[in-house]
TrEMBL record, chain A:
<dbReference type="InterPro" id="IPR001135">
    <property type="entry name" value="NADH_Q_OxRdtase_suD"/>
</dbReference>
<dbReference type="InterPro" id="IPR029014">
    <property type="entry name" value="NiFe-Hase_large"/>
</dbReference>
<keyword id="KW-0830">Ubiquinone</keyword>
<keyword id="KW-0813">Transport</keyword>
<keyword id="KW-1278">Translocase</keyword>
<keyword id="KW-0560">Oxidoreductase</keyword>
<dbReference type="Pfam" id="PF00346">
    <property type="entry name" value="Complex1_49kDa"/>
</dbReference>
<dbReference type="InterPro" id="IPR022885">
    <property type="entry name" value="NDH1_su_D/H"/>
</dbReference>
<dbReference type="GO" id="GO:0050136">
    <property type="term" value="F:NADH dehydrogenase (quinone) (non-electrogenic) activity"/>
</dbReference>
<keyword id="KW-0472">Membrane</keyword>
<comment type="similarity">
    <text>Belongs to the complex I 49 kDa subunit family.</text>
</comment>
<keyword id="KW-0520">NAD</keyword>
<dbReference type="GO" id="GO:0005886">
    <property type="term" value="C:plasma membrane"/>
</dbReference>
<keyword id="KW-0874">Quinone</keyword>
<dbReference type="GO" id="GO:0051287">
    <property type="term" value="F:NAD binding"/>
</dbReference>
<protein>
    <recommendedName>
        <fullName>NADH-quinone oxidoreductase subunit D</fullName>
        <ecNumber>7.1.1.-</ecNumber>
    </recommendedName>
</protein>
<comment type="subunit">
    <text>NDH-1 is composed of 14 different subunits. Subunits NuoB, C, D, E, F, and G constitute the peripheral sector of the complex.</text>
</comment>
């Protein structure tokens, strides 16, 4: 870790050090101003904004609702489909647009595939932060398979620009269904392997159980969402509780943390929620593949001209990191008057000072990893 | 949402008005001096229990010379949502902070301060969050003009 002594307080016990702006555990540009007493963290203050790309300013100056979609990809670049989907649903709500069945099913399949890919990255790098290298490779091999499927459909590996207002950019390839089914059957046994390597590994449990405990009330007060909130034992998933798209047609469970190996809301709980969510996503994909109609034009409902009436919406969707909300104000022109992206990473990171007090510096690495932030999502 | 407004109106006689939207979502306009009181009531009242602040955004309306803070609230207990708005003049954009009610407002208010320029009174640490501390102006104002250089480096305009 690159450390630099900033101040030495009078009692000569505490010291302020920088963790970051570049640090292997922060997965992006994040500076933590950490006050330590020896190895114990007294205070950790996040300093963000290094990656700020003015998403909102761009969106408001482009003057075209459709042109904003590629920029939403870049908000959280490891779950781009989910970012697109939220924005597109918000605009469609302003337009009061009906979406063809086939498109809805495809979007759900893509979003859930992306959720698994994103969780694999989150889990793999979380292990890596704690010194476990092998699970990281295992996760990336599986993630690669999903990226190949998405690449074949959209033509891009990370920033897809695949979902558009009213439909999809193009139809899925012919072998999409078979390849996805193949992936599902090959992936299920891999989760067991992963559990053997990480979940039940006693070193991993020692490093994550009882660490960074986030109690339920604190989580709600700070607006936590996604695995961060569910890890604290709150059964809250927007896909179920405030359903959107066609998620009400599928049967799946909401995994929550229960303090199986430590305290409810610790790093291990947040981790296990992600692992179990992947299994739920597989269930959703299977059901969607079975129910999806074979025929239909994916561009059928795409409007020639996007010009919503005056009004505003706040639409939230469940992304791998939690609640992604788009607040869009329309002034009856061809582009949004105001777009605010409420990203889960931004809100979840703001909890860090509250849960890192009293942790060891090496635990702080575990806590940051367990939040699973993507700095693109924090800074936008 | 209009039911919640009726219920609110019985408690707060002044400072509230309801706006029914034709497209999209309706909202309740709250006067700046009462926003904190209203929010505290919304959070604590047994019937309402808005325990989750989803989003807080700042918007600039140059025609009216006004800045707006928008609050999107949700109750995980009752499952209802509410949109609150506060409008303040551009010259004196003072809005009481709701940080003491929902901790998540801390960063959201800092962002609205940074990008739109609303001053949240009583915020414990109202600093810029996305731009550098010595940045000039508030980028999401509609009449924002980017500074030509920052610390001797041209900003590309």
């Amino acid at each position: 870790m690159k450390t630099e002594v900033l101040t030495q307080e009078a009692d000569k016990r505490t010291m302020t050090i920088n963790m970051g702006p570049q640090h292997p555990s922060t997965h992006g540009v994040l500076r933590l101003e950490v006050t330590v007493d020896g190895e114990v963290v007294k205070k950790a203050k996040p300093d963000i904004g290094y990656l700020h790309r003015c998403f909102e300013k761009y969106a408001e100056s482009l003057g075209d609702y459709a042109k904003v979609v590629p920029y939403t990809d870049r908000i959280d670049y490891v779950s781009a489909i989910n970012q697109e989907m939220g924005y597109v649903i918000a605009v469609e709500k302003l337009l009061e647009l009906e979406i063809p069945e086939r498109v809805e099913y495809m979007r759900v399949i893509l979003a859930e595939l992306q959720r698994i890919a994103s969780h694999l990255l989150g889990i793999g790098t979380f292990g890596l932060d704690l010194g476990a290298f092998t699970p990281f490779l295992y996760c990336f091999i599986e993630r690669e398979k999903i990226l190949r499927i998405l690449e074949k459909a959209s033509g891009a590996r990370l920033l897809y620009n695949y979902i558009c207002i009213g439909g999809l950019m193009r139809d899925i390839p012919d072998d999409f269904k078979t390849e996805t089914r193949e992936f599902i059957s090959s992936f299920r046994p891999k989760i067991d392997e992963l559990n053997e390597l990480l979940t039940t590994n006693s070193i991993f449990i020692d490093r994550t159980a009882n660490i960074g405990v986030l109690p339920e009330e604190v989580a709600l007060n700070y607006g936590a969402s996604g695995p961060m909130l569910r890890g604290s034992g709150v059964s809250w998933d927007i896909r179920k509780n405030d359903t959107y798209s066609i998620y009400d047609r599928f049967e799946f469970d909401i995994p929550v943390g229960s303090g199986e190996v430590g305290t409810t809301g610790d790093c291990w709980d947040r981790y296990i929620v992600r692992v179990r969510e992947m299994i739920e996503s597989l269930k959703i994909i299977e059901q969607a593949l079975d129910q999806m109609p074979d025929e239909g034009d994916v561009q059928e409902a795409v409007p020639r001209r996007v010009r919503p009436k005056e009004g505003e919406v706040y639409v939230r969707t469940e992304t791998p990191r939690g609640e992604l909300g788009y607040y869009i104000v329309s002034d009856n022109s061809s582009g949004p008057y105001r777009v605010k992206a409420r990203t889960p990473s931004f809100v979840n990171l703001s909890i860090l000072p509250a849960i890192s007090k009293g942790a060891l510096v090496s635990d702080l690495v575990a806590i940051v990893g367990s939040i699973d932030i993507v700095l693109g999502g924090v800074d936008r | 949402m209009s039911d919640i407004f009726e219920y609110l109106n019985t408690t707060f006689e002044e400072g509230l008005s309801y706006n029914e939207a034709e497209t999209g979502q309706s909202w309740v306009l709250v006067s700046a001096p009462t926003i904190k009181e209203v929010c505290k009531f919304l959070r604590d009242d047994e019937e309402l229990r808005f325990n989750y602040l989803m989003c807080l955004s700042g918007v600039h309306y140059p025609k009216e010379n006004e800045l707006e803070a928008v609050y999107h609230l949700h109750s995980t207990i009752h499952g209802h949502t509410l949109v609150l708005k506060v409008r303040v003049p551009e010259e004196e954009p003072h809005v009481p902070s709701v940080e003491s009610i929902w901790k998540t407002a801390n960063w959201h208010e800092r962002e609205a301060y940074d990008l739109v320029g609303i001053h949240f009174e009583g915020h414990p640490d109202l600093r810029r969050i996305l731009t550098p501390q010595d940045w000039e102006g508030h980028p999401l104002r509609k009449d924002y003009e980017q500074q030509e250089s920052y610390r001797g480096v041209t900003t590309g305009i």
